[in-house]
Design brief:
The protein is an all-alpha fold. The protein has 13 helices and no strands. The N and C termini lie far apart (126 Å). This is DUF1013 domain-containing protein. It comes from Mycoplana rhizolycopersici. InterPro entries: TrcR.
């Protein structure tokens, strides 16, 4: 991996202010156009940028700058870094320990059944398998299909719950919302909703009771009570 200069424009500002290097030398080192370096020297560009000392950052040495100042044709070279940062390896299928590899088909079957929205690439990242194996388990053509039992990959230790939730969330994005038929909900017709319950008709009939009939019944009850009291006084 080729080493790159940190903050090229800020470095160019420092070189313009603190060295006698030519515009071409600074432009070549900072990957800028010579006219842009001239604009920095004239104060027309990078006015708000603070210069960055490449010597302090370990990207240039004083001897290299002195050689370039003495020879206008000398091209500045970056200093070798004191610390090497290892390059990030390209992510591949998740490594699965040998002791757990026999559980992968069961985990794949569980993912296929419980999370059909997951793509083959996502399942491969979770349990460290190949797309052909996933396809065989999905189509029941795997050599051990008869003995497979779905098992949670998190329980088996093949992936973490966080990784599984993240992949499920990614797969769920952009999916259409479930329809009413899928949710098992149906709307009743307007004709059905307009029908009142049978009990409401009874309540309406109870409200329409004749007041005279009620008072007549109360009078008869009172007269019967008076007659009973008279009979008690006679005895």
């Amino acid at each position: 991996m080729a080493q790159q200069l940190l903050m090229p424009k800020a470095t160019a500002v420092w070189l313009v202010d603190n060295t006698a290097l030519s515009f071409d030398q600074i432009a070549q080192f900072c990957k800028l156009h010579p006219l842009e370096v001239k604009a920095i020297a004239d104060g027309e560009s990078a006015q708000g940028i603070k210069g960055l000392d490449p010597i302090a950052t370990g990207q240039l040495s004083r001897d290299e700058i002195a050689r370039a100042e003495a020879n206008p044709n000398h091209k500045l070279k970056l200093s070798e870094p004191k610390v090497r940062v290892p390059e990030s390896k390209r992510k591949g299928p998740r490594y699965t320990p040998v002791s757990k590899r026999q559980d992968r088909p069961n985990a794949i079957l569980w993912l296929v059944r419980n999370h059909p929205e997951l793509k083959d690439a996502q399942i491969s990242r979770l349990v460290g398998t190949t797309k052909s194996t996933i396809e065989q388990i999905r189509e029941r053509t795997h050599w051990n299909s008869a003995n497979l039992a779905p098992m949670d990959p998190v329980t088996l230790g093949l992936c973490s719950q966080i990784d599984l939730d993240l992949e499920v969330e990614r797969a769920s994005k952009g999916r259409p919302l479930p329809t009413a038929a899928e949710l098992g909900a149906t709307l009743e017709s307007a004709r059905e909703t307009e029908k009142l319950p049978f009990g409401d008709h009874e309540r309406e009939e109870e409200k329409e009771i004749d007041a005279d009939a009620v008072f007549a019944k109360l009078k008869s009850l009172k007269s019967n009570r008076d007659e009973d009291e008279d009979d008690d006084q006679r005895f």
